[in-house]
Write a structure and sequence with these properties.
This protein has helices at residues 19-45, 47-55, 60-67, 78-83, 132-136, 138-150, 159-178; strands at 90-94, 98-105, 111-125, 183-193. By secondary structure, the protein is an alpha+beta fold. The protein has 2 domains: 19-83, no CATH class; 90-193, GTP Cyclohydrolase I, domain 2, CATH 3.30.1130. Strands 1, 2, 3 and 4 form a 4-stranded antiparallel sheet that branches. Helix 1 (19-45) crosses helix 2 and helix 6 runs antiparallel to helix 7 (159-178). The longest helix has 27 residues, at 19-45. The relative contact order is 0.11.
Length: 194
């Protein structure tokens, strides 16, 4: 009687993938990586600049700058950069210190109030249409800012997203009150919650 042991049985060799399949997988990975890189560049540069890069042409914003200061750009963020510093002159106007109450939640879940102290300034383009309304309606803007701040909670102001949201909302209110796009940026020098 003959018994076979594990040593006598042939060892199972794992099957290797054929070389052609490995190359195909590698090519697919390279293609997907290239597409992701191209998509990232297109999003970060903008589609027009990305196409100009691919075609080896000069981008539209760079050619606008080369043609001279009389030519104005029509793109959103590139407009101010293409016009140069002489075409857009920003004026910074500070507001009086704003102190108001905001709501907060304690560790036990009880609602309480906190003081918010805010020092802001508004940067606006004095050459833009409606810029004359900024100084005339400054008191109304401050009142609108206070109305918004009173509705906030301490949690709304936490982190970078809280600060970005606050600046965006204040800028939106400034533009609505002046009825123009002259207000460009809200600058925050102090933001204290006590």
């Amino acid at each position: 009687m003959s018994t076979t042991t594990e040593q006598d049985a042939p060892a199972a060799v794992p099957a290797r993938k054929p070389l052609g399949r490995r190359i195909l997988v590698l090519l697919v990975l390279l293609l997907v990586s290239g597409a992701a890189l191209a998509g990232g560049l297109a999003v970060s540069m903008g589609p027009n600049a990305f196409l100009a890069l691919l075609l080896g042409e000069e981008s539209g914003e760079a050619s606008d700058q080369a043609e001279g200061p009389g030519k104005t750009a029509t793109a959103g963020h590139g407009a101010a950069a293409a016009q140069g510093p002489a075409a857009s002159s920003l004026v910074v106007t500070p507001f009086k210190e704003i102190i108001t109450n905001i709501t907060a939640t304690t560790a036990t879940g009880r609602r309480t109030t906190r003081f918010l102290k805010l020092n802001v300034a508004l940067a606006y383009d004095d050459k833009a249409e409606g810029a004359d309304q900024v100084e005339a309606r400054k008191l109304y803007m401050r009142d609108s800012f206070q109305d918004y701040l009173r509705q906030m909670t301490e949690r709304d102001l936490q982190g970078t997203i809280g600060l970005v949201t606050l600046k965006a909302e204040l800028l939106r209110r400034a533009r609505a009150i002046t009825e123009s796009e002259a207000p460009r940026e809200i600058l925050i020098s102090d933001l204290i919650v006590q």
